[in-house]
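Re: the 332-residue chain
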Amino acid sequence: MLKFNRDRLRASHESIWLAVDFVMLGLLLLNLAFILFDSLYITEYFRATLDFISPSIAMHYQPIHNNFILIDLCFVAVFFTEFCLRWFVSVKRKEYLRWYFFPVIHWYDLVGCIPLGATRIFRFLRVFSIIYRLHKYKIVDLTNSKIYQFITFYYDVFIEELSDRIVVKVLSDAQKDLRQGAPLLDEIATKVVATRQDTLSLWIASVLTHAGHSIEDKTSGVVIRDHVKSSVSKAVRENSEVSRLKLVPVLGSSIEQTLESAVADIVIQSVIHLLKDMSPQKINYFITHGITATPLEEKTLDKEVLAIVDECIELLKGHVSNQRWKAHFDQD
């Protein structure tokens, strides 16, 4: 049962339009009943039934039936006038981005004004537009109604089933392309990576340069420098040649410590200068000439990469195909 929120109704300042909606709804139901009655009046069986009930009914309705189109045009004139009035108000309020959007969005009202048998049924859609406006301004709450929940649930089921099949089809087509092997990888390498090699080189060089400045910084780079010093010192102490310095009387330990500190500083400074001096041109040259592999290694690596991607897509298809809406029934 729908409950009206009177406070929302007053706050929305739509009382006048709501009254107009109910008046139009009454005229609409009257018009639809009139159309239904006139359609049945054409049949012999319905006229015989009217004669059986009261012969005067069919006799008095015959003039109305003869002028049915004119009477229906009177209803159409009212509906079309109300449509134009709402269009004018919509343009004045700037409810839509363009003035001509209103008749496009409310096409069913416009089509329903056409006095033809096939188009008159669209007048019934005005009922749903009225209910939607009430829900939009929170005058009534449709979310708690059984009908709304039923329609929403099966609409979500339809959208999920449709979207899942589309996604699975797209992923399957992608798998077919990937399973062809080298042609796709070659296109990625030549059309995607190669065309942006300068940009990638610049990005890699900027990252390395930033890392070099960060290590050189006394605050942010202290952890890296201490780690390098610790590693170098450990390597120097474990070196058999350096350990012999301890055998030198008096100065052996001091020489070893000085050597550890000097080597650690040299290594740190070498890393910093290596990173800071890295230019996009050097990265570009290294990518072009430095990375080499045998044809056999490339083919083996390509197959392994494609197998990994193919398995990932297969798992993704399995998750996409999972019918989540069935969990709703499992909970019940």
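DSSP finds 17 helices and no strands in the chain.
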